[in-house]
Amino acid sequence: MEKLTTIIAKYSPEPDFLLLMIFLFACGKSVIFISSLLPPASVTLMLGIVAGKPVLSDIHVWAAITLGALLGSVLSFHCGALFCRRGSLKRLPIRFQAPLHRAQTALQKKGMPLLFMSRFLAVMRYTVPLVAGIIALPLKQVYCASALSAAIWAVALMWVSRIF
Q1: 3-state class of 133 per DSSP?
Q2: What is the Rg, in whole angstroms, of the alpha carbon atoms belonging to the chain?
Q3: What is the model's pTM?
Q4: Cα–Cα dist 164/1, whole Å
Q5: Exposure pattern of 65-103 as b/e (b: 16+ CB <10 Å)?
Q6: Quick one: three-class SS letters along 130-150?
Q7: What does the alpha-carbon distance between residue 73 and residue 142 come to, in Å, rounded to a whole number?
Q8: CA–CA dist 160, 9 (Å, integer)
Q9: How many CB atoms lie within 10 A of CB 24?
Q10: What average pLDDT does the structure give for the chain?
């Protein structure tokens, strides 16, 4: 493992650029239109964390992941709100309306826990905030759940990266 860390440190980009890349990947993995184009979040972010170990402080890496994930969730939420405001829901095919109704019911009953837990499930990471925007959940509720889950997700990713 030391050899791998040495190679990564030797060829890794500047620390500020590496932090920016970690931030952008964390953000991108939480936005519905970008996430499907990126490789799996855990692998990508783990590589960034491992690459940054020799040159980045843990607090900076944690902040980059947390802020990126929070921004991604907020963008997904506002995309959902914009989608709803434009009246696009009426044009949805029938097959999407029943699942959307079930998601709406679940989010209205258990909004905070679902928003929190969605961070840790790949596809749910961006779809739950999107649906929360569509059904107009309160901003404060969405922002608080997203911030808390992003902070804990960042810690979990960093903890797992310690193994490597």
Answers
A1: helix
A2: 17
A3: 0.77
A4: 7
A5: bbbbbbbbbbbbbebbbebeeeeeeeeeeeeeeeeeeeb
A6: HHHHHCCCCHHHHHHHHHHHH
A7: 9
A8: 19
A9: 17
A10: 78
Structure tokens at 42: 């855990």
Q: Which two tokens stand for residue 75?
A: 């963008």
The dihedral built from the CA positions of residue 29, 30, 36 and 41, taken in this order, carries a sign that is: positive
Q: CA-to-CA distance for 1 and 5, rounded, in angstroms?
A: 6
The gap between the terminal CA atoms of the chain, to the nearest Å, is: 7
Count H helices and E strands in the chain, helices first. Answer: 8, 0
Task: Retrieve residue 62's tokens.
Answer: 């944690």
> In this structure, are residues 130 and 79 in contact, taking their beta carbons and an 8 Å threshold?
yes
pLDDT in tens, 110-137: 778 888 888 888 778 888 898 888 888 8
Q: How far apart are CA 137 and CA 105, in angstroms?
A: 11
pLDDT tens, position by position, 13-41:
677 877 887 888 888 878 877 766 666 66
- Please tell me the distance from the alpha carbon of residue 73 to that of residue 79, in angstroms, as a whole number: 10
* CA nearest neighbour of 126 among 22, 35, 21, 23: 35
